[in-house]
Amino acid sequence: MAIALRGLYLYPLKSCAPLAQPVATVEPRGLAGDRRWMVVDAAGRFVTGRQQPRLTLIRARPDAADALQLDAPGMPSLRLAAMRDRARVAATVWGSTVASLPAAPEADAWIARFLDQPARFVHMDEAALRPVDPDYGDAAVSYADGFPLLLISAAAMDGLNARLARPLSVLRFRPNLVVDGTEAHVEDGWKRIRIGEVAFDVVKPCTRCVFTTVDFERGERDADGEPLRTLIGYRRGPDGVTFGQNLIPRGGGRIGVGDPVEVLA
Prior knowledge:
By secondary structure, the protein is mainly beta. The chain has 2 domains: 158 residues, M1 Pyruvate Kinase, Domain 3, CATH 2.40.33.20; 89 residues, no CATH class. Strands 1, 2, 13, 14, 15, 16, 19, 20 and 22 form a 9-stranded mixed beta sheet that branches. Strands 6-5-12-11-10 form a 5-stranded antiparallel beta sheet.
């Protein structure tokens, strides 16, 4: 069976609800429009679904190059736009500080109200640079945790669901790319692939955390601790629990659901 791209997903605001796409444009720092917006606290530190599971209830849709349309339970719709005429703000995500564009005060009030804590939005435009870990080459990344894209095989998810009392969506793991036509976890052995006409380096397994226990349709953590509890039983290694692979694009172009996936190395 040929390997093909089965699912393609964006997260326009870091930790928001998944947005399925039939096609997407691959850029150096990831899929166009993926995780170019982020929520930070009063100190400029990133806020994610780990601390605030309610973030996963926000549905974000691109609305021009640097704007989003946001909808969330109990909130009015919001058009979120970058304020290019205002001073940049320092936004910290893991070990990186990114000189980011702010949003309007009304937008910041919206997210602070929804999360019930001091918070604001920041935007990564083309001038806001964030390098990946230099151990993995000279590349850039969005506000994603560490690398431009995340890939998971559908068979890996099937294998996990066979061990769970209650099957879960692969979107619990927030992939950009889901591929089928493989055996479970075969992606762990890949070094380089091509999807359509775009080549990617497969650089590092993705280490998993408590965010996988958040039900993004309810905006709450599952009390049973799944799927992390089950993954600990068979996917735990020296670097922690891993599931899926991080990618760095080595070129650009458009990819789409149904595109062939070729393993180059």
